[in-house]
Inverse folding.
């Protein structure tokens, strides 16, 4: 989740309401700018992407800042006594015009970037940071908030109102409202610099991915690679001016299967080295100094706000609460995960020896020999599964699962505004026929899109003037592309990713709250992954597989014996998967628990941290320092542990479904009512216990991953 502007502006908008302003002349004078249209004339009032141009953003941002400043002035100059309605609620609904612009802008900087948009993002970052700071450090505004907070026990507030008041008060305190004037200016300067550095880090990673290509001109060097991957590499070569050759790149659908299947060990080493060296070449895209500056500035900020380390500051606002609690969980899992990974390495080394080779297993061998051992142990590999995982069928299997759980249906929408032809739209319709949400899918890699997969928002759910505003949620992935001869055939990991991101979407689309700042995924960070990760649990359930795993040529449902092999192999490779995840989580925590970074050398620090952990040399953290977007550009600083923390929750929660039936209606209804609909209206553990009846334990997770 990306923080946009301030807490109140994370609140989102109803497109028909958001543009109401007191400056009608200005709106009319700029009518050629879509952001100034009072209401977008599109189906479900989605943004008119085909009309929006880069030059429209800046004047719209400027107008949005001006309008929100006027709204804030109206709150602080109100002569009436501060109340929940005229202060807390008014603040939460402020900035709608600005948020309307910002949500399109920041979605585009992730999935529709251009050189002009990059330049504008760098220009606007300090301006928007300053605007946010001027609100969150406004002493008159904070005094009104403090007045309401001091009287909260006598105000007869609902649970949601109590939570909004608590969140608002805490957000202002955490953003420097109580600092003296000198320290406020220091904090504003820090935030301004960070806003630029966060962008720079992510831009450098994207540039590194886009500049690399492995060009193969000898057919024998393709040995071992699946036909679909070869065909895709041929098409990439044509697009890049290397006709008649094959091009592989650092986008996941290219590099990962290459590492899994390529027989040519030297080429595996070459592309693996390029992958693990992203942002670490000492050139204009090098991120070592960038991340050091980010660490330093965040530490300065945390100390200004009264915390010893950045992790102390960040975790104060999570379920985990303290670095010690995070380390306790990670360390509990680390030893058994490492032992399992070592066992896997020994199995692969034995396979290498049995094959007549004498070399030592290296990092660029791991995925390759994992596939070999998996095939030997279970007679199963990814290439056997992919024909059954055609993208459209998988999506329909996802829809089937959501329908069985929650009773909603999906209606395809045509002739919708798009900024890329690959995008597909669907209306989500509830059992009573009402609109739940608009969902769009953006499936495949391109140079203008950053790597990975994510759910975001163009419009959140909330209630305004009695109207229930329904959300528009885009889902963005980087899946295997179709070729001239083959449809998009997914790996099992990509299938799980689609379900994962749609799990986030269920959190957004089923939201049933009043206030924007508490809507959907506006929850503490180590709770936000629960809805996403639990939905992955349905992917390999036989009852679900038979509805979507159909051979793309014959339509044959995946054979029962193949399903049995999938289930039998589910714990295979979990040593590696868990270890690389934990290594990245621990690296993140080690960085952000530093109390001094003045002499930090990121490469030495990472190396020494892995040495202290006794991480085997054949495994590196899932993300190395210079391309760890999550913690240096993506809002997960001191928070990458959230994935494993939330898996404790999701494994524990899914055990209820497993015991009662994976589509048990009472359990599904409870999950929807107590988790998905509630957003951030109550304490995360309270919400979880309302569903589960008790706090979670890591036992189910450890069993799932084969650690016990």
């Amino acid at each position: 989740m990306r923080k946009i502007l301030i807490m109140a502006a994370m609140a989102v908008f109803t497109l028909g309401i958001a543009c109401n302003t007191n400056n009608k002349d200005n709106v009319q004078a700029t009518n050629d700018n879509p952001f100034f249209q009072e209401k977008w004339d599109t189906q479900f009032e989605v943004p008119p992407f085909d009309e929006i141009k880069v030059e429209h953003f800046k004047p719209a941002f400027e107008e949005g800042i001006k309008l929100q400043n006027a709204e804030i002035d109206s709150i602080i100059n109100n002569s009436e006594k501060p109340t929940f309605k005229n202060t807390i609620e008014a603040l939460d609904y402020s900035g709608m015009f600005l948020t309307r612009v910002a949500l399109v802008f920041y979605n585009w900087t992730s999935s529709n970037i251009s050189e002009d948009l990059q330049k504008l993002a760098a220009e606007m970052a300090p301006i928007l940071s300053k605007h946010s700071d001027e609100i969150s450090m406004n002493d008159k505004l904070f005094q009104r908030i403090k007045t309401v907070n001091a009287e909260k026990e006598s105000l007869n507030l609902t649970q949601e109102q109590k939570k909004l008041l608590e969140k608002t008060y805490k957000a202002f305190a955490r953003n420097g409202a109580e600092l003296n004037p000198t320290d406020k200016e220091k904090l504003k300067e820090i935030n301004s610099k960070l806003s630029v550095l966060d962008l720079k880090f992510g831009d450098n990673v994207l540039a590194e991915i886009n500049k690399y290509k492995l060009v193969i001109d000898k057919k024998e060097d393709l040995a071992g690679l699946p036909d679909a991957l070869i065909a895709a590499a041929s098409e990439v070569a044509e697009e890049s001016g290397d006709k008649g050759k094959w091009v592989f790149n650092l986008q996941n659908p290219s590099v990962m299967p290459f590492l899994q299947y390529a027989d040519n060990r030297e080429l595996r080493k070459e592309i693996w080295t390029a992958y693990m060296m992203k942002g670490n070449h000492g050139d204009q895209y090098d991120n070592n100094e960038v991340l050091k500056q980010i660490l330093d500035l965040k530490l300065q900020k945390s100390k200004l706000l009264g915390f010893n380390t950045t992790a102390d500051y960040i975790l104060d606002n999570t379920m985990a609460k303290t670095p010690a609690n995070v380390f306790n969980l990670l360390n509990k899992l680390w030893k058994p995960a490492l032992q399992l990974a070592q066992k896997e390495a020994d199995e692969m080394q034995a396979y290498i020896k049995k094959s007549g080779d004498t070399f030592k297993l290296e990092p660029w061998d791991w995925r390759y020999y994992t596939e070999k051992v998996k095939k030997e142990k279970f007679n199963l590999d990814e290439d056997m599964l992919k024909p059954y995982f055609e993208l459209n069928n998988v999506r329909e299997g996802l829809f089937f699962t959501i329908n069985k759980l929650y009773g909603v249906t999906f209606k395809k929408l045509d002739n919708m505004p798009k900024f890329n032809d690959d995008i597909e739209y669907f209306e989500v319709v509830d059992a009573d026929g009402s609109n739940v949400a608009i969902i769009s899918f953006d499936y495949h890699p391109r140079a203008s899109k950053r790597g990975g997969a994510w759910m975001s928002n163009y419009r959140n759910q909330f209630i305004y003037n009695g109207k229930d505003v329904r959300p528009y949620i885009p889902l963005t992935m980087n899946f295997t592309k179709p070729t001239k001869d083959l449809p998009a055939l997914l790996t099992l990991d990509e299938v799980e990713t689609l379900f994962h991101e749609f799990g986030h979407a269920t959190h957004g689309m089923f939201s049933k709250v009043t206030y924007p700042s508490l809507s959907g995924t506006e929850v503490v960070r180590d709770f936000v992954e629960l809805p996403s990760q639990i939905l992955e649990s349905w992917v390999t359930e036989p009852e679900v597989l038979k509805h979507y795993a159909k051979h793309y040529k014959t339509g044959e449902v995946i054979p029962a014996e193949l399903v049995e092999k999938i289930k039998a192999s589910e714990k295979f490779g979990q040593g590696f998967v868990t270890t690389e995840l934990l290594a990245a989580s621990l690296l993140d925590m080690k960085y952000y628990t530093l109390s001094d970074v003045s002499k930090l050398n990121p490469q030495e620090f990472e190396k020494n941290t892995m040495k202290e952990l006794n991480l085997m040399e054949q495994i590196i953290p899932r993300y190395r320092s210079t391309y760890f977007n999550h913690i240096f550009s993506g809002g997960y600083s001191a928070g990458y542990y959230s994935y494993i923390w939330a898996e404790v929750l999701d494994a524990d929660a899914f055990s209820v479904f497993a015991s009662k039936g994976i589509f048990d209606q009472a359990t599904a209804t409870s999950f929807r009512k107590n988790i998905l609909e509630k957003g951030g209206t109550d304490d995360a553990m309270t919400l979880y216990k309302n569903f589960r009846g008790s706090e979670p334990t890591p036992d189910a997770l450890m069993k799932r991953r084969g650690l016990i």
Q: What stands out?
A: Strands lie at 214-216, 246-248, 409-413, 424-429, 435-442, 454-455, 462-464, 467-469, 472-476. The chain has 30 helices and nine strands. Residues 212-276 form one domain. The first helix runs from residue 7 to 10.
